[in-house]
Amino acid sequence: MSVENLKAYIESGVLELYVLGDLSPEEIVQVEEMASRYPEMKNEIAAMEHAIEKYAMQNTVEPSADVELRLFEKLGLNDVEENEVISTQPAYIEEPKIVRLDGSDGKVRTLRYALVACVALLVVSTVSLFITYNKLGDAHDQIASLNLDKQKFAGVVSKLEYENSGLENMAAMADSQEWATIKMAGQAFSPKSKMKVYWNKKDKSVLINYVAMDLPKTDEAHEYQLWALVNGKPVSLGVFGKTDSTDNEAIIKMQTIQQAQAFAVTLEPMGGSVNPTMEKLTVMGGV
Amino acid sequence: MTALKKLTLSEPELVLALQSKDPAVLKTLYSMYSSALYGVISRIITHTELAEDVLQETFVKIWQSAAHYDNAKGRLFTWMMNIARNLSIDKLRSKDFKNSLKNQDIENNVSFVDEQNKVTFNPDVMGVKQLVENLKPDLQSVLDLVYYKGFTHVEAAEKLDLPLGTVKTRIRLAIIELRKSFN
User: Fold this and answer.
1) By CB atoms within 10 Å of each CB, which of A97, A144, A186, A274 scores lowest?
2) Where is the RNA polymerase sigma-70 region domain positioned along the sequence (chain B) (predicted)?
């Protein structure tokens, strides 16, 4: 290239664009190739670089301090000692490394941390859920057992109420002069049984009290029948059910009888019988 | 006084340490050049947060591609500045940047637009300020676009509606003015 051509090339402004990084890769190669051949061009480039560098150094803007911290953290170099002396030993020239320049390493790392955090969160959530589920099961069990207790207590309470009402009646009748109490004793069929019948002298009504009886339990097909002996003849005063029943009132009103010499109870088939089954005479007592 | 010494390492020393991946050199390099490079970046990208991101990316790239730097081809600073400029321009054209513009509310926008049109100078350096003010307006507008706004010379020619040759000549003349004031 002649001196004139070289001058024209320089004056075209291509070197300025080269220094400003505003050339295509092919043009860059061309400029670098020529710069290595013509010292004049190389000097020209050096002078421009120098001027732009000076210019930049005089138009500085301080970035905030945490940029440096973030930078060293990102590169994993934040443990560098402030006062560490930089080695200025000539380093061997390394083979050019293939380095990813798009910064996706950092993104991948960030995503990896995010993934680890997510997994940790998932594990914690699962464990909490499991614990909560177990506690819920425990709570259900507790509720069930409390319900059972409640039913038991309700049963106890209703039984106590039932017995209480029976006892109150008995106490009231004992105080009153109107009521005669006939004690019936166990017979051959059931020697240990006993029972009381209350007979009103005025209106002749007859009451029995579940609390004041001790009879064997009946089976499904039988119930007790109360009889009055009037002039040697049995008269039915009605049937009554199982002695442990809590569904009924403690006091049961039987049929009235104008006169009687004795009362008796027999075990009869459900519904009662016309005549008492004397083999199953359970209790009997005279007035 | 290693700290002081460290801050004034010569360029060949810096390059050697950088290419041997000595972590301490990055600190030195940062303390020597971060504000100059940030001066370049922050004039192209006025959004502080994004500009600082680009500054960080610039040093990451300097660190990672130090092996590619060849001092036979030019000064270390030129190489670093071009990395900063290219990353800034990439950012300027990226989705991130466009999104950040959308997110500016009106109040911020006023100062944002102002900032975008403003060229600030280190107040300590009155000479340079004067110099650029003394540049002929047509030189200044070209230098503005290419140096501060991250335009390529082709884009600057389109923007100013000038022939490509004229733009190139004006860039050259503007840089010659700079050279005169520094040499």
Assistant:
1) A274
2) 29-96
